[in-house]
Amino acid sequence: MSEVGILGQALAEHADRLMPCVHCGFCLPACPTYVRLGDEADSPRGRLHLMGAVVEGRLDPASDAFRVHIDRCLGCRACEPVCPSGVEYGALLEVARDVAARARPPALPTRLLLRIFGSRPGRALFLGVGAFLRNTGLASLGARALPGWGPFRSARFGLAMLASTERWEGLRWIRATEGQEAPEDPAPPTTGPRVALLTGCVQEGLYDRVNQATARVLEANGCQVVAMPGGGCCGALHAHGGDLETARRLARTEVRRFLDADVDHVVVNAAGCGATMKEYDELLGGDPAESDAGALARRVRDVNELLAELGPRTGAPVPCRVAVDHPCHLLHAQGIRQAPLAVLKAVPGAEVRLVEDADECCGGAGIYGITHPELGGRIGADKVRSVRATECEVVATANPGCMMQIGAGLRLQGAPEGVMHPVELLDVSYRRAGFYDEERDG
Ligand code: SF4
Ligand code: SF4
Hints:
alpha/beta, Rossmann fold, four-stranded parallel β-sheet, 8 strands, 53% helix, globular, binds iron/sulfur cluster
């Protein structure tokens, strides 16, 4: 069989998943790339058609006709919930990306990033340098100094993303006023589930404060948080980026690590990682580890989801206006819409306003803003405009990629709004309520 045929075969194994598409086009208005480009090939239906052409051997997976449009997909999965036929677009996209990448290597930034994040020392070095650039202010300086055109545009945006991972100190100055006392707190729960936290790669390297806040908030809600040293990468970046082999290798390690910890739940505070881990049985399908992967996948909970299930304790007032934006991998891939709102409801004084197009992708999608500066920039600019229209002080979103994408957009506009994970806001509220042992948790 020819190389084209062999690669097409990899997609053909999923041909039965292409069949349910009845070409109705209901998914078109939900697709951010189709809405902006108006090209059928940049719609979910068009991309499914291209996948079908590869399966039938009519299209070379190395051709631009296939690669460009598959690559241009954000992987936001907004097309899934609106599809009346239940087409599993996300799963098909991952296979299509893998097929395209094996037919012709992806662009250099994507290749480099996947290579770096595939190894523990690579990740540690890359994120260590990133944290250094952020902590010394060099990232912020570079984002301000570089011009926003031509070859500088992607570098400028990347530095702004990095700079945006700094802790936002705005809430520090917002104090409760008279009449906003904390409601009486019932006795803290003592026997909650035993949980382990995925500390992740980007999350551990650049958002360790979110991990720390997550652990504190879970403990304050009665969970027994099991320490899991030596955090790994869940493989989401590789699964979404067209390197299924590395994604599977990383996933197997995480399956073993978390099953050995024997916990009730694996808690994830990055929506993209949670979506991948909940689908580990799909990723490792056909693998001897499949049943273990399924066992682990069933234990995975997004932190908002678990807190909403537990009914979070109410903290002390933090009077502020909070814009909420839904990460695609929380809303469309995991079907979680209300849980972040339930978390923020436990913060008295927080006035929550939903971003007008909260259901639409922010353009983050990994490093989309860097690899597709033009289209990613347009999608990101629309999101920043909607966020600012809420006239809130802070935007809450539960995924590091979205936090960076929106944060970078705000920074490049010189906007004062901050970006936080919903759990960070609850953490501030709990700290003010005196739920923590300050010496230990300070
Ligand atoms: S909504 Fe579903 S069935 Fe209709 S065109 Fe889109 S993917 Fe196909
Ligand atoms: S995943 Fe998002 S960008 Fe890709 S086809 Fe579906 S809606 Fe469009």
